[in-house]
Design brief:
One of its GO terms (cellular component) is cytoplasm. By secondary structure, the chain is an alpha/beta fold. It contains 24 helices and 20 strands. Helix 9 packs parallel to helix 11.
């Protein structure tokens, strides 16, 4: 076998070092990697010539100097993780493997990817992984990367690649038309939003073929970028107080269930938009159930107010526990007052009610079940007191019960709460009058107690089980409401995007095995369920830094580059509705189907760790049927903590 050691030394000295590449680590890497092992047998003798060489699949291996130039520009540290796009023969991958901890290489030609992988394995490079795929999309699942090197020329630097750079990361790539002289650019990510670019001279590379590059015929994959496609498809929204705002959502009026999301629990525009849409669905399309991500007993006091039912003696004011601002705010207050006014003078069966789906108010639910049975069946009430007595010591701090049950290894109170629910459900009755409303309330509370007992036990395992139990509880409560109100009943759901967007098409479902209300509802009702997500780019939000800490009005950081939110912001449309159903533009849906980051802010917001604590990868058109966008938003306004003078004593937000 020919010894190419002398040719390698000559290549390093004359082609690389003599042209200004002086980094000793790079020069040593080129001395060690046998270039002749990465070319076809017919070209081994020419492996060290100062020019590109043909390889399989009608591709080329780059000139040694260009490989060295791109690697030097990437400013690699030994601990770096590098994404290489257009791995070709695997030669540059081997050089990189000599310099950094890990190399992820992508090659679109299956035969080349397989051959490169075999060569690298035979040479003992265990820190390189080669994948077949569309390099223009990058490799989000493995990112972010300290450096990205692209050995193919695109019409531009693809947004997914920019988004997959670490802060401080470097990207080196040729940009320009196929079969023409291109420019080599280096991009450095300064922070989450800003990038610096410098040009490094003229080069000539094969085209980057893929969704964010060129087609096989040499055309741009799509001359319109995603923000332009969004701009073309977006339906601008009128002012929130304009009746035309709600009218735009008439298209969803034929559904059985319309789920309205929010990207945070503290944004005014999300609450006001949901109120406007819900008013329209109630007035024009026969919706009578407003089911919200709130605890059943708290929402029940609101429901008694809006449906002109008597206040329950001794009942606490609604929503007194953290996070109080989530429902005790001026935006919800205005909607509750409207709902009461709408119901004025209507028969009970024609009124629109306000119901909670969540399971956190354990004490309130136990009390509600006992209050119902005290009037309906005093003997059963005594049984309920005995069964719930097990949980009574933890009614105000159910998490403590969870800790106790885990340490003892069993659910001490499980049997009693299950039997209580079973007995209540056995009392099923005709749901056309006041008696049914009280039974429905008691049955929902009994289900909450049963599920909360299990939830607080499993939450300490830190797995998907607690999330799935909670969302399954909310879904079952929604189904209970629809069933109780009859086959013609229709519901609007208000909940966070993480609950109403189909989890099967998000990182929640694809990685963590979590399900949610949106997924379960879609599986049951199909096209009769419409999932509508909401998003924003920047502004302010009401949130806390940690659980049970005070609410703050926090600045929302501008959305991350490459995220769905940044694409919407870059469209230049301040607020819009994007219908994502079957009749949507194919080019738009095609680009939206590429997984991207989406932001989720709950009652906790930590801007300093936002990328990791508030973003998750999703597939927007599979997650939602429609997307509502407000580019800049404001925090909700919490209600004062005292009753307003002159209020009806039954007003639910009074103390």
């Amino acid at each position: 076998m020919t010894d190419f050691t002398a040719e390698r030394e000559r290549m390093v000295a004359r082609q690389i070092a003599a042209r200004g590449i002086t980094d000793p680590r790079i020069l040593e890497a080129f001395r060690k990697v046998p270039r002749e092992a990465f070319v076809a047998d017919d070209y081994r003798a020419a492996a060290y010539e100062d020019s590109p060489q043909p390889i399989e699949a009608e591709q080329t291996i780059s000139q040694p100097y260009i490989v060295a130039l791109m690697i030097e520009a990437a400013e690699l540290d030994p601990a770096d993780r590098v994404l290489e796009i257009g791995c070709g023969s695997g030669y540059a991958s081997a050089i990189l493997a000599e310099l950094v901890d890990e190399v992820i290489a992508i090659e679109r030609h299956e035969a080349l990817a397989r051959l490169a992988g075999r060569r690298l394995e035979e040479l003992g490079y265990e820190n390189v992984s080669v994948y077949e795929g569309d390099g223009s999309r990058g490799f989000a699942e493995q990112g972010p990367f300290d450096a990205i090197i692209v050995s193919a020329a695109g019409s531009h630097v693809p947004d997914p690649l920019l988004a997959q750079l670490e802060i401080g990361g470097r990207l080196v790539m040729p940009v320009g038309e196929p079969q023409q002289v291109q420019k080599l650019v280096k991009i450095t990510r300064i922070d989450e939003e800003d990038y610096e670019q410098e040009e490094m001279g003229a080069v000539r590379f094969v085209p980057l073929i893929g969704a964010h590059g060129w087609t096989e015929t040499g055309e741009r994959a799509d001359p319109r970028d995603l923000p332009a496609l969004i701009r073309e498809a977006a339906e601008p929204l009128p002012d929130l107080d304009d009746v035309a705002f709600g009218a735009l959502f008439d298209r969803f009026g034929d559904a059985r269930v319309v789920l309205l999301g929010e990207a945070s629990h503290g944004t005014s525009e999300f609450y006001r938009a949901r109120a406007a849409i819900t008013r329209r669905l109630i007035e024009r399309h026969g919706f009578t159930i407003v089911a919200v991500e709130a605890d059943w007993p708290d929402a029940a006091s609101i429901d008694r107010y809006v449906r002109h039912r008597p206040h329950r003696e001794g009942e606490d004011a609604a929503f007194q526990r953290f996070p109080t601002w989530m429902w005790r705010n001026t935006e919800v207050d205005a909607f509750v007052r409207w709902l009461r006014s709408y119901n004025e003078g209507r028969a009970l069966g024609d009124m629109a009610g306000f119901y909670g789906l969540d399971l956190y108010n354990l004490g309130g639910s136990m009390r509600a079940v006992i209050d119902f049975l005290d009037e309906a069946d005093p003997e059963a009430a005594a049984v309920a007191r005995e069964r719930y007595g097990c949980l009574h010591p933890w009614r105000e701090n159910p998490a403590a019960y969870g800790r106790m049950a885990i340490s003892e290894g069993f659910g001490r109170c499980e049997t009693g709460v299950v039997e209580m629910l079973r007995d209540l459900l056995a009392r099923r009755m005709d749901c056309m009058g006041e008696e049914c409303e009280e039974w429905l309330d008691a049955a929902a509370n009994a289900r909450l107690v049963k599920n909360a007992e299990q939830y607080y036990r499993v939450m300490y395992y830190g797995s998907a089980e607690s999330w799935n139990l909670r969302d399954t509880h909310m879904y079952e409560t929604l189904c209970q409401l629809l069933e109780a109100k009859g086959p013609q009943s229709k519901a609007v759901v208000w909940a966070h995007n993480s609950h109403i967007g189909n989890a099967a098409h998000t990182e929640m479902g694809m990685v963590r095995d979590e399900l949610n209300v949106g997924q379960l509802t879609k599986e049951k009702f199909g096209s009769q369920a419409r999932l509508i997500g909401f998003g924003t780019h920047s502004g302010s939000v009401a949130a806390a830094h940690d659980w049970d800490e005070p609410m703050e009005v926090k600045a929302v950081r501008p959305s991350l580059a490459g995220s769905y939110e940044r694409m919407c912001h870059d469209s230049g449309v301040a607020r819009f509705l994007l219908d994502l159903r079957e009749n949507a533009d194919d080019a738009l849906i095609g680009k939206l189907l590429e997984p991207r980051l989406e932001r989720f802010i709950g009652v906790i917001y930590r801007p300093e760790t936002e990328r990791w604590s508030h973003y998750s990868e999703c597939v927007l058109p599979m997650q939602y049927d429609a997307w509502v966008w407000f580019d800049e938003t404001e925090a909700v306004t919490p209600l004062p903590g005292v009753e307003i003078a002159g209020e009806d004593e039954t007003y639910p937000f009074g103390l």
